[in-house]
Please model this.
Amino acid sequence: MPLIWAALALAIGVPIALAAASEQLAWRGPVYILAGFAGIVALGLVLVQPLLIGGYLPGLSAYRGRRAHHWIGGALAFAVVIHVAGLWITSPPDMIDALTFASPTPFSPFGVIAMWAIFAVALLALLRRRLGLRLRTWRIVHLPLAIAIVASGVVHCLLIEGTMETISKATLCAFVLAATAKAMIDLRRKRALRGESIAR
Model:
């Protein structure tokens, strides 16, 4: 049991530690650095989400896993707000270009897509009861948004040449993709088995 938690801590902590040791930080201001690390933390939280909803983290009941998934989602949205706000403060023209999909940098549109998908999930989660969304409807809406978050977020991260060390960054992105794929496959199998048992 402790090995899984230790592996998760290393998967997230090593890229952060190596980024903190980057020589490029000497040329960056504090706001820019905060924004950058908020982005790294956000990617780490994206890894945690499928592990929680898939029930892969030991010591957490299904109920606690779902509750943690909810709160981590809020933390993810907050980290993205810090990331975007910090970049806006340091360079408003670049952020305007990014938000309007006019930026020449290839990583910008993927980051914007991931950002809006995260905000959409967070908003729908807050308004789910008021909107009267049933569990089935919520899953239908949430799944493509989750795929957009993971796929766009990973591409956004991989295309950026910044403070993150290349190998640890690629490893973290691979973990995010693998965890998400496994969680989706396992959840679909569970729902299929439930459907078969009900049909019988």
User: Anything to note?
Assistant: The mean pLDDT is 93. The chain has seven helices and no strands. Residues 2-199 form one domain. The longest helix spans residues 166-199.
